[in-house]
């Protein structure tokens, strides 16, 4: 009986250690996550990091001759949006296997995420 219990505990500890290792690997990958989006004409490139922060903007020197200021602003914003969307999607792909099956990823990391995904319903006091 004691040996079976010890074997079960050893197996559970190994599973927990594997999950912890996977979480660490995922967060390491997330910490270095970035994406660069390029305009079709290669005039504008924008790199964003994991949280959507702009890390770099590269403009082809010819861009000033081909685009008006408003067109350039639109092109930059389009690449920021494209790069941010790509980073968000990759983050979702990395985090999805770590989430409990009954908790939708969008509920935890989506635009309208709340703590409700992690907390139980309020407990009503007994009358």
From TrEMBL:
Q: Which Gene3D superfamilies match?
A: Nucleoid-associated protein YbaB-like domain
InterPro entries assigned: YbaB-like_sf, YbaB/EbfC
List the source organism: Nonomuraea indica
Fetch the SUPFAM superfamilies from UniProt: YbaB-like
This protein's UniProt keywords: Coiled coil
Query: Do you know which Pfam families this protein is assigned to?
Result: YbaB_DNA_bd
The answer to whether keyword Coiled coil applies is yes
Coiled coil ranges: 2-33
What's this protein's name? YbaB/EbfC family nucleoid-associated protein
Keyword Coiled coil in annotation: yes
